[in-house]
Design goal:
By secondary structure, the chain is an alpha/beta fold. 27% of the residues lie in helices and 29% in strands. It has a single domain (2-123), classed as Oxidized Rhodanese, domain 1, CATH 3.40.250. It has a six-stranded mixed beta sheet with strand order 1-2-6-5-3-4. Strands 7-8 form a two-stranded antiparallel sheet. It is globular, with a radius of gyration of 14 Å. InterPro entries: Rhodanese-like_dom, Rhodanese-like_dom_sf. One of its GO terms (molecular function) is thiosulfate-cyanide sulfurtransferase activity. It comes from Lutimaribacter saemankumensis.
Length: 126
């Protein structure tokens, strides 16, 4: 993981592997900052949705029990949200490098949409 000091705060950039392992161990909360439409089409199972357009950094819970790691489609929006969280007073925050595209590229499981039925379905890439 890469760490950048931003004034008196820390912005961490996690790899997909780091995020996936910590998520599997229930050590982090993964927050998807994409649009509701993107999330409904495909998302990481168990990730929460907090779209960039509606983000309020001062409403984030503390990170005593679990760390917060943001993700988006490519890593651009999640970094922007992480920096907004720092501007709102959060002292340590993280985002996932490469976003959901990197998650899929690393062949991690996710929930997708069955194009024949429109229903959500688990996708387990090989």
């Amino acid at each position: 993981m890469k760490t950048e000091k931003v004034d008196d705060a820390s912005l961490e950039t996690w790899t997909v592997e780091e995020a996936a392992q910590a998520f599997d161990r229930n050590e982090i909360v993964l927050i998807d900052v994409r649009t509701p439409q993107e999330y409904m089409f495909e998302h990481i199972e168990g990730a929460l949705l907090m779209p960039l357009a509606f983000f309020k950094g001062d409403k984030l819970p503390d990170q005593v029990e679990k760390r917060i790691v943001f993700h988006c489609g490519s890593g651009v929006r999640s970094e922007r949200v992480a920096r907004a969280a720092i501007a709102a007073g959060v002292k340590k925050i993280a985002h996932m490098e490469g976003g959901f595209a990197a998650w899929k590229g690393a062949k991690k499981p996710y929930i997708g949409t069955n194009m024949a039925t429109g229903a959500p379905q688990a996708v387990m890439p090989e």
